[in-house]
Specification:
about 30% helix, 13 strands, single chain, alpha/beta, about 230 residues
Length: about 230
């Protein structure tokens, strides 16, 4: 039996969309991807009970009122239905102790769902000089480094203390929710990865490993393989 993986989607003009790189990342490592609609209701429980794991994909910005703030000028487009659906589904998946991998926006919404918060726009809110976190390079190119926390699940998976990653974001995690630890940080202090201390596999990463797979990036392969292994248990 193959693991069935729910893949989150975006909504624009009443259409669902998801980059095929996310779908290919699941099939490459033996899973069956199911693109999820952004519904808020009893369907969430049925979805969580049906899938073996959840891949929270990247996308636009997150509604700051969900973590007690109002919109700042640097905030981009938000999709309220997506925010509410993903938050409720993450909470249900963690209740069921099922694996979740959050990518970029997916990591951010997972943190918010569990009580964390975030920068709406790092360039106007975070002190000190910052790296270019919205790279001007092909998506398969790693543009900056991430220091991986010793003793973390991420470190165990990738087997390296430093990763070269791609980067397409202007929002970022700020304070970790209870029961989670930071597992990767950029040289400018921006949180790049975090993970649960209470679940076998619940991880958020700020970069896009699904795009790095096209060049056979070893750490990206290891992350998706570990995710799929967890979903099969």
């Amino acid at each position: 039996m193959k693991a069935v993986i729910g893949v989150s989607s975006n909504i624009k003009e009443d259409l669902l969309s998801v980059p095929m790189s996310n779908v290919r990342a699941i099939t490459q490592f033996g899973g069956v991807p199911i693109v999820l609609p952004n519904l808020v209701g009893d369907e969430i429980t049925e979805i969580a009970n049906t899938i073996n794991g959840l891949l929270l994909t990247g996308g636009g910005d997150i509604d700051p009122t969900l973590f007690g703030e109002e919109p700042l000028p640097g905030l981009g487009n938000i999709v309220p239905e997506r925010d509410l659906f993903e938050m409720a589904l993450v909470q249900k998946m963690l209740e069921l102790n099922k694996p979740v991998l959050g990518i970029c926006r997916g990591a951010q919404i997972m943190s918010i769902a569990m009580g964390g918060d975030m920068y709406q726009d790092i360039y106007s809110q975070k002190d000190g000089p910052l790296l270019q976190h919205d790279q001007q390079a092909p998506n398969w190119h790693g543009s900056h480094f991430v220091e991986v926390t010793e003793g973390s699940l991420l470190r165990k998976i990738v087997g390296m203390d430093k990763l070269k990653v791609n980067s397409y974001h202007h929002q970022a995690l700020r304070n970790m929710p209870a029961g989670f630890i930071v597992s990767g940080v950029a040289s400018d202090g921006v949180i790049e990865a975090f993970e649960s201390t209470k679940h076998p596999f619940v991880m958020g990463i700020q970069w896009h490993p699904e795009s790095l797979l096209t060049k056979g990036d070893a750490s990206s392969c290891a992350i998706f393989q570990a995710f799929m292994n967890a979903c099969m248990k």
